[in-house]
Amino acid sequence: MARFGFHASHEQLAPSALLEAVRxxxxxxxxxxxxxxxxxxxxxxxxxxxxxxxxxGAALARTGLPxxxxxxxxxxxxxxxxxxxxxxxxxxxPGRFWMALGSGEALNEHITGDRWPPKEERNARLLECVEVMxxxxxxxxxxxxxxxxxxxxxxxxxxxxxxxxxxxxxxAETARWAGSWADGLITVNQDVPRLRRVIEAFRExxxxxxPIYLQVHLSWAEDDETALRIAHEQWRxxxxxxxxxxxxxxxxxxxxxxxxxxxxxxxxxxxxxxDLERQAGWLAELAGLGFDALYLHHxxxxxxPFIDAFGEKVLPQxxxxx
Length: 322
Known about the structure:
By secondary structure, the chain is α/β, with parallel strands linked by helices. 43% of the residues lie in helices and 16% in strands. The chain starts with a strand and ends with a helix.
């Protein structure tokens, strides 16, 4: 049976508020948590972007939940530093931390001033980072000269077990590639046929038997009109895929690209409804695809009503045997 977790969106809440939200989520019955790792939000309306790694230490200490993070080593983060951060969390909180690795987005990575590589090169760079990080977790002294450069790096504080390195993928093509190197897969909600193709591609690429996770964007409020307004105000810049999402560099650019997005368009990527029974039905269908965990992201900035409502009415339904 799938676990249901809480997604902490650093783009939308201040770190202190997000810490309180994840504590409330644990009390309400959420069994796990994950967070984003951004330098900038998708839009000025979202308005936040705290440093995920500082926050993760506090969140792991404040709760008993297992946590994951979606991150991108290679440009903003040197892979040796990424490995050191992850190893430190795993040493302090054994068995409670995993990290998902992606090739990154210009929104967060352009700040270094380095050239933003094309997707094929970013994937190759990510694979080098994975190899470097795994060698460091194994206690090796690493020197590497390629798309990333490492000079005699060694981790002096190692956990008993390194973190699982999960592949982040939206398309079937990327999921198949991730199956060849990742310890698991995380993807985002989209229509069920596409999700099935993503899962199948990951397994065909080498991911058979490995865990698969789903981040679910949803919007809930007391009425459908408010739920849709929240989704449009906060998450219309999250509709873009492919080259648009990867290559835009600022919140202003995302807002400009989203000027033609209508409220109804947001339903393509956000589960919008005030009906808790309907929300539970959608989540049950997604869980039935075989995911090991679903991380629920209410795209509004007010998290407490969502946490209370889903903790009381939705999670108990999802825990019942079908």
